[in-house]
Amino acid sequence: MANKHRKIVVKLGTSTLTGGGTHLDQPRVLDIARQTASLWRAGEKICLVSSGAIAAGREVLAFPQLQKTIPAKQMLAAVGQPRLMDLYQQFFNIYGLAVAQILLTREDISDRKRYLNARNTLSSLLDQDVIPIINENDTVATDEIHIGDNDNLSAMVASLIDADLLILLTDQAGIYTADPSLDQRAQLIEIIDGNEIPAAIWEAAGGSKNGLGTGGMQTKLEAAETARRSGTLVVIASGELPDVILRIANGEQIGTRIMPVVDTLESRKRYMLAGAGKGNAVVIDAGAKKALASGGSLLPVGIKKVMGSFDRGAIITVVDEKDEPISLGLANYSSEDVKKIQGKQSDQIERTLGYIIGDEVIHHNNMVLLK
């Protein structure tokens, strides 16, 4: 398969799942499962960020007449989310794949410990050949923690898992030079490149009166801006097209491609450099240094000394016995706990601490080498 991508995030809007109608379009959801399974069999790792819970809730409750309040929407989401997941489970099971439900709020991503929990959970699911189905936790989200839409959530997920490709499926062909419903001269923009997205494109995305603006293309452009600065290629395209997910993953020019500003490794390094606490480090022996250079994780047995004071989820520096920086990473354990388990085998962690988060002090998925 051409243009392979290690990790792909696909965002599915309500219009894509319903075909623009009031009911979930089950053949369409089945087809999404088919395309996803095909990519998975080809070696790709896929996360789906799926809207549709509120629409499913309305369907389950036979379309009740409700006020447009946040509690009413949260109630519908609570009713609809099990229905939506039931469909995904049924359809992915046809292709021999398991799915998992992940509900997130902004706090889960902005808080370093929750960020680490979410990242580790998603990594574990992908490693076990499980398809994560992610949605904003609408049943409890408030104005303070609300992400706002699944477009921006999908960009955060792409950054969370270091995705190579983010596909935003919508009811439009992509981003246009103007609102195509108002301007017959409007043309599809096939590629957006460069360090900054031009002001004219922002204006075109925000000036729509038929859904292409706020809550539509504007939020997709905001999401694309977030994702591209994390090193992710973004494609905005119509969910109506046959095999659209497969075709985009194969590199076919469909919709609007928004090119990344940096690669994922550079983005991750910048993030960790910015967040690393001064003086917070672990000193490792020669064997651990060799293991990290080969792509391994940092195990407690290779740690000689702990410096500074840090909590679980902190970004710390890994140095060798000559005090040369080797890597940066997210710590699975606090400095006090690392002091207790340093030099020990991983099977002694639970016996020593009374609990275990993982066999590693820093998992290789949460680490970036500095040399």
Outline the structure in words.
With 371 residues, the protein is α/β, with parallel strands linked by helices. The chain has two domains: 7-264, 3-Layer(aba) Sandwich (Carbamate kinase); 276-369, Archaeosine Trna-guanine Transglycosylase, Chain: A, domain 4 (Roll), CATH 2.30.130. Helix content is 39%, strand content 18%. The strands form two sheets. It has an eight-stranded mixed sheet with strand order 3-4-2-1-5-7-8-6, with helices on both faces. Strands 10-9-11-12-13 form a five-stranded mixed sheet, sandwiched between helices. A hairpin with a 5-residue loop joins β11 and β12 (325-330). α3 crosses α4 (70-94) and α7 (150-160) runs parallel beside α9 (217-228). The longest helix is centred in the first third of the chain and has 25 residues, at 70-94.
Biggest β-sheet description: 8 strands, mixed
Radius of gyration: 22 Å
- What is the β-strand count? 13
The proportion of strand residues reads 15-25%
The end-to-end span amounts to 32 Å
User: What is the domain total for the residues?
Assistant: 2
- How do the SSEs run, as a string of H and E? EHHEHHEHHEHEEHHEHEHEHEEEHHE
- Record the strand order, biggest sheet: 3-4-2-1-5-7-8-6
**Alpha-beta classification:** alpha/beta
Portion in helices: 25-40%
| Sequence stretches where pLDDT stays below 50 over 5 or more residues | 207-215
Mean pLDDT: 89
CATH top level class name of the largest domain: Alpha Beta
CATH architecture of the largest domain: 3-Layer(aba) Sandwich
* CATH-assigned homologous superfamily of the largest domain: Acetylglutamate kinase-like
CATH topology-level fold name of the largest domain: Carbamate kinase
Q: Please count the helical segments.
A: 14
